[in-house]
Design goal:
11 helices; about 325 residues; alpha/beta
């Protein structure tokens, strides 16, 4: 946190970007009282500078599992250092969502003296089965990239370890943006939707660092289409949902994504009449009359406004 604060105050890091604020975290009613006195200035400066997205769980809900589940939804990569049961559970949450997990070999113990070895144990497991923890581009060696991050119990120079981690992160496959849209080529609206996705959405998604994922495009790894749709949607980092023509399957996939608290970007052609209050779920209503540049600009603005939207339903206190 100190390094982030230093970069932020020096103007090297922006408070927020198209994908949200510089820092996203989960708080409870006890968070403020748990800030150490010597860290209070850093905490206050980052929050006053609008660099922190703080999402709070229900008062009285202190269970770490709730916070870890939401953190896994908000983030794309987990880098684990030491720890115990909490780090191990967080790794499980990230893996279950199809997200990258990088564990370091440094063992500093666990504050609660629990777990079965924390990050350092998972580091060894990842060396043996890297595909269970992360995916890298075809030209990279997963095991070698991880092995080069060894701290050797803190004896390696910090700069060397940092460079190895950065190289590792850059070799990871990009998070996926799953497309929910009209795919029936026989419908008159198909050409309009196809043009919007190919000329606008593909470009914006790629610029933001995501890999477009659409059914029927690219190699097929599934025997059944329904399995392909929901498995891919389940493990995507963000869902781009276009409701032009109000297809039932699109609404089903939208509901699945919202129910899982995934990040959702909602769009539709401007002549679409939503069967629900349009203000309940904000959508970008695109117009074919607008230029490509104009539609890209509007989609980016809509993305920035909605990408960090909190979960629509919070757990009830019992």
């Amino acid at each position: 946190m100190a390094a982030v604060s230093e970069g932020f105050l020096a103007g090297k890091l922006a408070a927020s970007g198209v994908n949200g604020r510089l820092i996203a975290t989960i708080g409870t009613s006890k968070t403020d009282s748990q800030i150490p006195t010597h860290r209070r200035k850093i905490y206050d400066e980052l929050r006053q500078g609008e660099a922190v997205q703080m999402e709070f769980i229900e008062p009285g809900w202190y269970a770490g599992s709730l916070r870890r589940n939401r953190m896994a939804q908000l983030c794309d990569i987990l880098i684990g250092i030491s720890g115990g049961e909490g780090v191990e559970h967080l790794a499980q949450e990230f893996v279950a969502m199809g997200k990258h997990v990088i564990m370091l070999d440094l063992n500093l113990g666990s504050s609660s003296r629990d777990g079965s070895g924390g990050a350092s144990r998972l580091f060894e497991r990842a060396l043996a089965a890297p595909n269970d923890f992360f995916r890298v581009e075809n030209s990279a060696s997963a095991q070698e990239l991880l092995d080069r991050t060894r701290t050797k119990e803190g004896t390696e120079p910090a700069g060397k370890v940092v460079q190895a981690i950065l190289k590792f992160v850059l070799a990871l496959t990009a998070p996926e943006a799953f497309y929910v849209r009209l795919l029936n080529t026989s419908l008159p609206e198909f050409s309009s939707v196809e043009t919007f996705f190919r000329n606008i959405v593909d470009s914006v998604v790629t610029e933001l660092g995501y890999k477009p994922l659409q059914m029927g495009v690219g190699p097929n790894e599934y025997a059944w289409m329904n399995e392909a749709i929901f498995d891919s949607l389940h493990h995507s980092a963000v869902a781009i949902v276009d409701l032009t023509t109000l297809r039932p399957n699109c609404f089903m996939e939208l509901g699945y994504a919202l129910g899982r608290c995934q990040r959702v970007i909602l769009t539709a052609r401007d002549d679409t009449n939503f069967p629900f209050d349009a203000f309940a779920l904000e959508a970008y209503l695109w117009s074919e009359a607008d230029s490509i540049a104009s539609r890209k600009k509007k989609l980016l603005a809509h993305w920035q406004r909605n990408i960090a939207m909190p979960a629509i339903v919070k757990p009830r206190k019992t």
